[in-house]
């Protein structure tokens, strides 16, 4: 169920019988056809236990189920929208950045410490993204929100990408991430460059970076 980008802040999805999708509640802008919107208590796949896990991890964003036959346009808050097509890999993204995604994708949560150890947890605190993040795995499309435009940077072996934690949006692939520091005496006395922390992503995949250091 791919999304069609109408412009940088609106996407359109084709809804067909027998298939469902999920979107953030209140994100529907307009629709054609016979389409229904119902609150999703479980927030996608994973059932009740998945819902409890996301709530405990503070990765519980109110979602709704979209079903029927027709086309639906989505957008939220005038944010920039980036469509990411998954072909079996896992996407790592904060729950509040999810605008809409295919119902076939498997949703879960991941403890940040499992990627990057202690520095992975520190990264969550420095970036304001918490200790957990949301995962979507499988074949399908995801529409995520960001400030300003988004650029996709490939991550290849032996060529890690360093990103400002506040500008990080999401990543996918076989990627490790950790927080690196460049604290020196100038930072300690307030004369640093303001880039004391960077998020280092290495492996094989891609990272999405927004044109702003502002969270949603």
UniProtKB/TrEMBL annotation:
Superkingdom to which the source organism belongs: Bacteria
Which Pfam families does the record associate with it?
Answer: AIM24
Protein's name in the database: AIM24 family protein
Query: Organism, per UniProt?
Result: Streptomyces erythrochromogenes
